[in-house]
Amino acid sequence: MSTTKRDKSPKGEGFSPTFQIRIPPDLREQLNTEAAKDEMSLGNWFKELARNELKRRGIEPKG
């Protein structure tokens, strides 16, 4: 289980641009459940997932 918590430190000059995707309700429920297990919002869970995937591919994540 991950212990990553929400990073509340300021980043740059304000809000990041939004990224919207459509997710079927059943999949959304599964994703929400897993994010809650890690005590994260779904948005932060996706960011952590993306950062981990970049690292797995040998790319250092920015931001």
From TrEMBL:
SUPFAM superfamilies, sorted:
Ribbon-helix-helix
Q: Which InterPro entries match?
A: Ribbon_hlx_hlx (IPR010985), Uncharacterised_HicB (IPR008651)
Compositional bias (Basic and acidic residues) at which positions? Answer: 1-11
Region Disordered: start-end pairs: 1-23
Which residue spans traverse the membrane?
Answer: none
Instruction: Name a biological process GO annotation.
Output: regulation of DNA-templated transcription
Q: Which domain of life is it from?
A: Bacteria
Q: Which Pfam families match?
A: HicB (PF05534)
| Protein name in UniProt | Toxin-antitoxin system HicB family antitoxin
